[in-house]
Amino acid sequence: MDGVRQAQIEDVPGIVALQSACFPPPFPPTLHWRPEHIGRHLELFPEGQFVAYCNNLVIGSASSLLISDSRWGVHLPWVETTGGFSFASHEPDGEVLFGADISVHPDWRGRGVGRELYRARFEVVRRQRLKRYGTACRLPGWRSWAESRNLSGLSTNQEDYCGLICSGEISDRTLTPLLKYGLRYVGVAHEHMDDDESGNAAAVLEWTP
Ligand SMILES: CC(C)(COP(=O)(O)OP(=O)(O)OC[C@H]1O[C@@H](n2cnc3c(N)ncnc32)[C@H](O)[C@@H]1OP(=O)(O)O)[C@@H](O)C(=O)NCCC(=O)NCCS
C-alpha cells in the first residue's frame, strides 16, 4: 500500500469497483454505491471520505458523515442514520463521525489497510474535536454460526454471537478486525439493513478520543 488520503472525484470509478468485490452475493447489489452517491459524499463532506491506494489504484475506501449525538444514541437502521445513499442526514454541526462503510479489496486484506483507513477516521474526530466515532458493523459469519448452533439446540441470537467474538472465543471476518482497531462494542441493532448473512443485524461500535 502507498497510503491513505482524502478521496477525489477521480477515485469514484475505483471506489465503485470495490463494492462488488467487497460485498458479493448474498449481499444485495442494490445496496452498492453508484457513482452519483460517491460524488454527493464528496460534495457534502469531503474530509470524511478516504481511499487507500497503491500505484494509483484504489485498494480500499471508507465513507463517513456527521450526525448529532442524539441521533447516534438511538441507533436507527442504516438508511435512517445516513439518510440513504446520498447521506441526506449529514449534519455539518454533528458531533459524531458515523462510518457508513469500509471496503478493502480481497487481495489486500489482512495487511493493515483497514487499520490505516480507521487511523484516518480517528484523526478526523480528533482534528474536528468531535465527541465520538460510531458505526454499525456487519456480522457476516453469523448465519453459518447460527445454523451449526441450531443443530445442537444452542441459542443463536446475535448478542451471544457478538459476546463470543468480543471474548475472542470465535472470530468474525468483519467484527474482529474492527474490534482490533479499538472500537468498543455497545450492543446489537436489529433490522439494521437487508443483510441475510448477518440476519439483518449489526454490532453497534463506538470510539472516543
Ligand atoms: C473488514 C475489513 C475492512 C478489514 O480490513 P483489513 O485491511 O483486511 O484488516 P487489517 O489488515 O487492518 O486487520 C486488522 C486486524 O484484524 C485482523 N483480521 C483481519 N481480517 C481478519 C479475519 N478475517 N478474521 C480474523 N481477524 C482478522 C488482522 O489480523 C489484524 O489483526 P492485528 O491487528 O492483531 O494484526 C475488510 O475485511 C473488508 O473490506 N471486508 C469486506 C467489507 C466489509 O464487510 N466492510 C465492513 C462493513 S460493516
Keywords:
8 helices, seven-stranded mixed beta sheet, Aminopeptidase, alpha+beta, single chain, binds coenzyme A, 209 residues, globular
Description:
This protein has a single domain, classed as Gcn5-related N-acetyltransferase (GNAT) (Aminopeptidase, 3-Layer(aba) Sandwich), CATH 3.40.630. By secondary structure, the protein is an alpha+beta fold. Helix 5 links the parallel strand 4 and strand 5. The structure holds coenzyme A. Coenzyme A (COA) binds next to strand 4, helix 5 and helix 8.
Q: Would you kindly provide a brief summary of this structure?
A:
It contains eight helices and seven strands, in the order E-H-H-E-E-H-H-E-H-E-H-H-H-E-E. It is α+β, with helices and mostly antiparallel strands.
Query: How many strands, which pairing sense, and closed or not: the largest β-sheet?
Result: 7 strands, mixed
Bound molecules: coenzyme A
The total number of structural domains is: 1
Class from helix and strand fractions: alpha+beta
The CATH architecture: 3-Layer(aba) Sandwich
Q: List SSEs in N-to-C order.
A: EHHEEHHEHEHHHEE
CATH topology: Aminopeptidase
Low-confidence stretches: none
